[in-house]
Specification:
By secondary structure, the protein is an alpha/beta fold. It has 2 domains: about 5-125, Response regulator (Rossmann fold), CATH 3.40.50; about 130-230, Arc Repressor Mutant, subunit A. Helices cover about 40% and strands about 20% of the residues. The chain is built from 8 helices and 12 strands. The protein has helices at about 10-25, 35-45, 60-70, 90-95, 110-125, 165-175, 185-190, 200-215, and strands at about 5-10, 30, 50-55, 80-85, 100-105, 130-135, 135-140, 145-150, 160, 180, 220-225, 230. The strands form 3 sheets. It has a 5-stranded parallel β-sheet with strand order 2-1-3-4-5, sandwiched between helices. α4 links the parallel β4 and β5. It starts with a strand and ends in a 5-residue tail after the last strand. It binds calcium ion.
């Protein structure tokens, strides 16, 4: 499970230690020294998770968490607060601001990695290695295989050939079924870039995905929601 993590920490030594350990675990790391710099980074690339120091110069980590939670684009990005504070009422304040979890300084790299893993598993199901099955369509993230499970002997376990982008797109849609996703959201979550890639790109890959699904009669799972975006839903019959 490799993800992009934004580390907002003003102490260089701690920032470096965190960054080193995250990279060692295969993650992509973005580092910011304060909330303003972090905001600039978030505007470019939506991270999969934010590690946010409570005590920052100028804007505090709690205030920054509130801003992230207010914006539609960033409101569901998981946040783990780093804090030297252990007071119960302060913990509550942070959780109210929208933090998913807490890590109290000093912490071990092992604890850090374990907490991140737990939050990601809970919050970003498309990053899990779990096999997904929807309406007879089966996707295995570990083997990168998509197959069809059916009683029809000729089709039994028929495997679908998908390009890497279509695979990621399908994985995301299956992990978040029955919800409408705008093109910008899909670009953020599947491509990791909503600024430099055109919305039209999404349509192109949706079309390719549907074409592959059509061969096994499952293209109707991917639905266009007029004026809004796309939805993966079994409610098509
Ligand atoms: Ca600090």
């Amino acid at each position: 499970m490799s993800v992009t993590i934004l580390v907002v920490e003003d102490e260089p030594a701690i920032q470096e230690l965190i960054s080193y350990n995250l990279k060692r675990n295969g993650h992509m790391v973005l580092c910011a020294d304060d909330a303003e710099q972090a905001m600039g980074m978030v505007n470019n690339v939506l991270p999969d998770l934010v590690l946010l120091d409570w005590m920052l110069p100028q804007m505090s980590g709690v205030e920054f968490a509130r801003i992230l939670r207010r914006e539609p684009r960033t409101k569901s990005v998981p946040i783990i607060m780093l804090t030297a504070k252990v007071e119960e009422n302060e913990k509550i304040l942070g959780l109210d601001a929208g933090a998913d979890d807490y890590i109290t300084k000093p912490f071990s790299p092992r604890e850090l990695i374990a907490r991140i893993k737990a939050v990601l598993r809970r919050r970003l199901p498309e990053l899990s290695e779990e096999v997904l099955e929807v309406d007879g369509l089966k996707l295995d993230p570990t083997t990168h295989r998509v197959s069809i499970v059916t009683d029809n002997k000729e089709l039994k376990f028929a495997e679908l050939t998908l390009g890497p982008t279509e695979f990621r797109l399908l994985h995301y849609l299956m992990a978040h079924k029955e919800r409408v996703h705008t093109r910008a959201q899909l670009l953020d979550r599947v491509w990791g870039d909503h600024v430099f890639i055109e919305d039209r790109t999404v349509d192109v890959h949706i079309r390719r995905l549907r074409k592959v699904l059509e061969d096994v009669g499952k293209d109707k799972l991917v639905q266009t929601v007029r004026g809004a975006g796309y939805r993966f839903s079994v409610e098509y019959k």
